[in-house]
Design a protein that fits this description.
With 225 residues, this protein is an alpha/beta fold. It has helices at residues 4-11, 61-67, 78-91, 102-108, 110-124, 153-156, 158-179, 187-190, 196-205, and strands at 35-41, 50-56, 94-100, 131-135, 147-150. A five-stranded mixed beta sheet has the order 3-2-1-4-5. Helix 3 crosses helix 7 (158-179) and helix 4 packs across helix 5 (110-124).
Length: 225
């Protein structure tokens, strides 16, 4: 069994991490069993779903990914993220994607939709971990598997960083496919985020059916399909 209280206390340490001081090699190294890293992308986007990934890695994959220069997905180029995502998925014992739709975001708010996407990703796993490492400071409600939140987890945990990369690549691919249907918003470049061209298009043409109407920039007339 995982002593979550002891683990939580150790993870709250704000001591700086060295290059090789990922939590899997220090605080989490004594945990017996499989860990799942869980992270989301698209929380600040104006368009499309919020997407989460849950990734379970074998211990032998961790040094390999560290040597490959894995880091928070936001700090990687698009091409490098794609390469690493392929490597991560090839090494993973299990990985799954969960998402919450635009309609769900508007209905329950972005925070709750984000936690729902995370929960869906975890529940899809065919291999059950002993502990889920959740990026951020919000626990996933009604998750029966033990969990531990880690602030800036994608910078501290190889497993969470891996989930961050897989989720980002999956969501970017989805938005690129949708971009052809809605070319006026420049989605291929901004991936749904509020770039100047995107915001100007919203003001000029209104929002599409896949824009988040609960987000202020999208509260314009609705573009017909």
């Amino acid at each position: 069994m995982v002593n979550t209280e002891k683990t939580a206390a150790a993870l709250c340490s704000s001591a700086p991490l060295g290059e090789s001081s990922w939590l899997e090699f220090s605080t989490l190294s004594g945990i017996q069993g499989l860990l799942a890293g869980v992270d989301e992308v698209g929380r600040g986007s104006l368009f499309g779903p919020v997407v989460a990934a849950a990734v379970i890695l074998p211990n032998h994959a961790l040094p390999e990914l560290m040597a490959a220069g894995i880091k928070d997905s936001k700090k990687l180029s698009s091409s490098r993220r794609t390469q690493l995502a392929e490597q991560i998925c090839g090494l993973a014992i299990d990985w799954k994607i969960g998402f919450a739709s635009t309609a769900e975001i508007d209905q329950m708010n972005i925070l709750q939709a984000t936690l729902l996407a995370m929960k869906r990703a975890v529940l899809k796993l065919k291999v059950q971990p002993v502990l889920c490492l959740i990026d951020g400071n919000q626990s996933v409600k009604n998750l029966l598997i033990p969990q531990q939140t880690i602030v800036k987890g994608d910078e501290r945990s190889l497993t969470i960083a891996s989930a961050s990369i897989v989720a980002k690549v999956w969501r970017d691919d989805l938005v690129l496919r949708l971009a052809a249907k809605y070319p006026i918003y420049d989605l291929a470049r901004n991936k749904g985020y509020g770039s100047q061209r995107h915001l100007l298009a919203l003001q000029q043409y209104g929002s599409s059916p896949l824009h988040r109407k609960s987000f202020r920039p999208c509260q314009t007339k609705v573009l017909s399909n």
